[in-house]
Specification:
Chains A, B: InterPro entries: AspAT_Ic, PyrdxlP-dep_Trfase, PyrdxlP-dep_Trfase_major, PyrdxlP-dep_Trfase_small. Chains A, B: Keywords: Aminotransferase, DNA-binding, Transferase. Chains A, B: This is DNA-binding transcriptional regulator, MocR family, contains an aminotransferase domain. 2 copies of one chain form a homodimer. Chain A is about 45% helix and about 15% strand. Chain A has about 425 residues and is of the alpha/beta class. Chain A has 2 domains: about 150 residues, Alpha-Beta Complex (Aspartate Aminotransferase, domain 1); about 250 residues, Type I PLP-dependent aspartate aminotransferase-like (Major domain) (Aspartate Aminotransferase, domain 2, 3-Layer(aba) Sandwich), CATH 3.40.640. In chain A, the strands form 3 sheets. An 8-stranded mixed beta sheet of chain A has the order 2-9-8-7-6-3-4-5, with helices on both faces. In chain A, strands 10-11-13 form a 3-stranded antiparallel beta sheet, with helices on one face. In chain A, helix 6 links the parallel strand 3 and strand 4. Chains A and B meet through helix 3, helix 5, helix 6 and helix 11 of A and helix 3, helix 5, helix 6 and helix 11 of B.
Chain lengths: ~425, ~425
């Protein structure tokens, strides 16, 4: 991009004026994380009051109120089975957080190894590594960092991770024990992995025989477009290619019903679920099965879930459209930024002029808009090109969102013009 | 004990006949664990249907339905504060299992150390040790075993652990990093620690500066007698003696409301709760706050909890009385067994003729009564004298319980007489 010197001065001055104007508005907007709005949560209010007083037994006669039932209620496993395409007896349904299930799998492999591991992951001489698709989900990367697992970045392409690179790494480096994937409407790029990518992940040779795919299917039924993307079944593919233990599949109802009071699942091979259950017995008296009953009786069937998710979509779509509308109006002509137009999920990935992402966040924060953590979508929080930012438009109402987007746009422009003008003055 | 030869033969023959009679009844009774009965759970049926639809906000305005709030809702922390005597801002309220909180504390100390640790517990040269009061709670010991923590047994006396031994061990052995305590109506002996014991635990010098008391106050409001035992406040004592970080205090509502759907807490110093919260952020999006609201609105106040627990007591007491009544009638005169008469909690500790506990369990199982795991109250599951068994009378109805107790008594007698007769024949 090349802007003439005079134009640049004018643009810079305009941006300064605009920024000053917003700075004086005493804004206080926090939209840093992908949180459903109160209006979305209201869609599930009936769940709060599902009457259970006379009917607390599971289909198989289990008293949902008492201890036990580590694997989760039959009907909860069946409902997830329809969502993730794994038989119900190979599904574990836990508490309110799929993140907790992921952590437990990682911690368990760390201390004991997986069913296929020659030793505990913590005992591997030279340490272990994970492939991290970038930009990706900060909480995945934070776990790796915490365990001291080396992170190897692989770029996200239009149809999923760069599989040529993934294949090359995984076949040659036996320290690579896993890959983090958000395979549908990925966080933050909203990429859905193509059938070819899923098949390659399931079939590719791996130097580590205990290689695991952490398949965080967080947005399994969360389209923003009318026709939901279809995602190839990783488990079926893994079985077909003789790697049935490879995928660990996670999902939850947190972004269907109540974010803080949903239920989460882990699905995979019989070996993997038995492995998880064995360790779970040590630390728990079983999940909250009453809430499982409540969730299942509210969500009922895949069809009902689809109806509910359509209502979510109607609430989310205008916000995502507003992101594009404001960015396009404010930034479309300068070429100093580009952004994704998500087909689903909770995020827009915004790419600003390299070298300015941190500055953009700083400027916005000074103007009262907290919207992103620079580098958060990269391992160790380091965005080397300082260019990527994650936008989470779900929580604020549309007016507040619009204001925030205007501010962000001004900051993107101001940071870019300041940067270009500094470069120009050096030249 | 000495029984004349002829008497022994007659007793042995009577026991054989009785045992045969019960064996033919095709019984199938499982009373192996301390599980509340359906009638007890029914006391909290109103909790299942606490209406929240129009009132899901916490006192401080937190939307209980959404993400976040890792420390738990204010009102839930306050309610626990009244039970465990620690300020509400030094309490964390989590999900449905205090066991999970204990595990997390142990796992966290293992990986990072405590706020006072020179290094992670896993990195201590020579490994670490815990004091285990015996007989004690199998799940505590199982965790130690799993982490490879050495267990040092200390006998339970009438007023708590043998503190002379505890003091001597803790001051001299810096590998001892913790002690497991169920300080009130202890599992399985129903011992409540005396004021002197609690004060000594709080004040004694420890070679390890990061020594921790895992204070599992599982039966904090669970008396079987009319006047609840009073337990000295370990936290206050620890503060007074300059060891505020020493106790980690656990409790839950699982045996007040719904066993599988209660809420649990961790209380302690600010350092300890901050330490726990820091690691929790990595693995969780926060606890189920909706259930916290439900629990608090149902339990309401310490007075209401007391009323509820009195109703539990009325259901439990006849069962515990039945244990004594049957054992006394069946075993009282022979001197081959003794048993506790609990003032609270969920268990009776039965001591049979040394060398026969395993045989008793085996005989009972063959007659269709599963009631204990020999050795389960000892580290590594090893009861060297083969004499102690745990009775959990809460779950079966009184008729089933009575039958089970008759069977157990017959098995205790039969095993004893068989044993004595074998010994006599050797002599």
């Amino acid at each position: 991009m090349k802007i003439a010197h005079d134009d640049l001065n004018r643009l810079k001055s305009d941006a300064d004026t605009e920024y000053l104007r917003y700075s004086k508005m005493d804004l206080r907007i926090d939209m840093a994380r992908g949180i459903p709005s109160p209006q979305q949560i209201d869609l599930s209010m009936a769940l709060l009051d599902v009457p259970l007083g006379n009917d607390y037994l599971s289909e198989d006669g289990t008293d949902s109120r008492n201890y036990g039932g580590q694997q989760g209620l039959l009907e909860a496993r069946r409902l997830f089975s329809t969502l993730v395409g794994v038989p119900e007896d190979q599904i574990v349904v836990g508490g309110n957080s799929s993140l907790a299930l992921m952590y437990e799998c990682l911690a368990q492999a760390w201390r004991y190894g997986t069913p296929d591991s020659p030793r505990a992951w913590s005992q591997e001489p030279g340490g272990i590594s994970f492939i991290c698709v970038v930009p990706g989900y900060d909480r995945h990367f934070a776990m790796c960092e915490d365990f001291g697992i080396r992170m190897i970045s692989v770029p996200m392409l239009d149809d999923g991770p760069d599989m040529e690179l993934v294949k090359r790494l995984v076949v040659s480096d036996s320290s690579i024990k896993g890959i983090w994937c958000v395979p549908k409407y990925s966080n933050p790029t909203s990429t859905t992995y193509s059938k070819a990518v899923v098949e390659t992940l399931a079939s590719m040779p791996a130097a580590a025989r205990d290689f695991r795919i952490f398949w965080d299917n967080a947005y399994v039924v969360h389209p923003l477009v009318e026709v939901d993307d279809s995602l190839e079944n990783i488990y079926t593919q893994a079985v077909r290619h003789g790697h049935s233990n490879r995928p660990l599949i996670f999902a939850s109802t947190s972004k269907m019903t109540l974010p803080g009071a949903g239920i989460a699942e882990l699905a995979g091979s019989k070996d993997n679920t038995a492995w998880w259950l064995k360790a779970a017995a040590l630390r728990s008296v079983g999940p909250d099965k009453v809430n499982q009953l409540r969730q299942v009786r509210f969500l009922r069937s895949p069809e009902k879930i689809k109806e509910l998710m359509e209502q979510h979509r109607q609430l989310l779509l205008p916000k995502f459209e507003r992101v594009h509308e404001v960015f396009n109006r404010r930034l479309g002509t300068f070429g100093v930024a580009q952004w994704t137009r998500p087909r689903g999920g909770y995020f827009v990935s915004l790419e600003v002029l390299p070298g300015t992402a941190k500055r953009v966040v700083e400027l916005a924060a000074q103007a009262g808009v907290k919207f992103a953590t620079p580098g958060s979508c990269f391992p160790y929080g380091i965005d080397e090109r300082d260019y990527q930012l994650r936008i989470a438009p779900s929580y604020p109402d549309i007016l507040q969102l619009t204001t925030a987007l205007e501010v962000i746009s001004v900051c993107v422009a101001k940071a870019a013009f300041d940067h270009l003008s500094a470069v120009a003055s050096v030249e």
